[in-house]
Amino acid sequence: MVGPPRHPPVWTSDRAGVLFVLVGLWAVVPKILQTLTSAKYRVRVDQAEPPPTALTALATDVLTAALLGFCLLVVLDALRRNPRRDLLGLVLLLAPWLWVEVRSFTLDRGFAVADLVYPAVVVAVWLLRPGLRHLRLLGYLAGAVALVSVAIGVLLPDAGVFRASDGSVIDEEKAILPLGVLVGVFTHGNTLGQFLIMGFPLVALVQRRGVRAVLLAVSAFALLWSAARSTIAGAVALALVVAVLSLLPVARRTVPYRLVLWGAFGLVAVLPFVTTAPLAFTGRGAIWTRSLALWRDHPWVGNGSDFYSRIAQTSADLGGTVYHGHNEMVQLLVTGGVVLAVLVGALVLAAVHRAATVPGGGTVGVAILLALAAASLLEVSLLFDGGSVFDPVLLLPLATLLVGEPLGPDPAPDAAVAGSSRSTPADVAPLARARG
């Protein structure tokens, strides 16, 4: 007698989901624990941050081991099954990381276990080929980060609001709400703003309408409280552009998609070179000018990924709060030279191609890339060494776009919630639907 079919274990049924959850826990849990167990305050770039507490260090070690171990199991299983995969996307994703590590080796910067997180996750995504349903998991994660950050800001303002080492509130004359500047689980409002804006396209994928609306509202409030003005403006532009693109006929979206994305990333690349006023963009003009001048010392190979922390220890100090280039193109050139900029450029162009040619004209990929561009115009988001807190909202979506399943039209939310087995093509992308 034949019994009922067995459900396959998690390992075989949804390994990509397990990977995404592990990356989310690895990136966020230590930040939450450090926030709850240690003092948080602004430090200069030439000063050491408060060391991780014993609980934070333990969680970091355990989660790093779990994540790398899981990625290794994925690779070993793939060796047994020998799946066929296109190598181009994998090469494009790994090339910038490899160059950063090679340049660090030439500068005797050493190697850390955390440096393995980026390639391990990329290879695992390439082998598992996640899709839209896995990005929804990240939507819940991004929304949870917003919720927890707001809760910490309200209940534990000493830990959740930007403060100096003496405990005084720092508003830098830019606070939008009379509550200071929200940092939440991070150490700076700009970092929270970057995480939130890159999380918006993912939160908009959450299928339950009520949950999606709540998470989007909380994320928007957290972004406003963070006073991260560049990402606030970017979020508004993101919503408007995606809404307009979703109104275009599906058959005529490819060219507008390309033009919009090329324009967005072109602005990221060009802005520092056409900005001459030192005080432009709240002092970033001076940072860009001086950074690019130092880049010209080693134009092809750059000065290494730890350049900004090293220069802070010298008389050429760029300023106590200049932790990076405050623009993705500046950061790439200064740290990895023209070589790194070209490698990342090839990666971005491939991602743009995938987002613009998605079957059914869905806007998910476009929204993900536009959010990345917005988070990279006046800040730095793409990092290739030591892992990044942005991996759940940047690396995983980007890798999924490049080497995962095609991010086609999303099934109608109501049908999906009801358990419908059919996917209904939608002309309006999840971001646009979230508006209604």
UniProtKB/TrEMBL annotation:
This is O-antigen ligase-related domain-containing protein. The keyword Membrane applies. Residues 195-344 form the O-antigen ligase-related domain. Keywords: Membrane, Transmembrane, Transmembrane helix. The keyword Membrane applies. Residues 412-436 are annotated as: Disordered. PANTHER family: LIPOPOLYSACCHARIDE BIOSYNTHESIS PROTEIN PA4999-RELATED, TEICHURONIC ACID BIOSYNTHESIS PROTEIN TUAE. It comes from the Bacteria. It is found in: Membrane. It is a multi-pass membrane protein. It comes from Microlunatus spumicola. InterPro entries: O-antigen_ligase-rel_domated, WaaL-like. The chain crosses the membrane at residues 16-33, 53-75, 87-105, 111-128, 137-156, 176-198, 210-228, 234-252, 259-281, 329-352, 364-384.
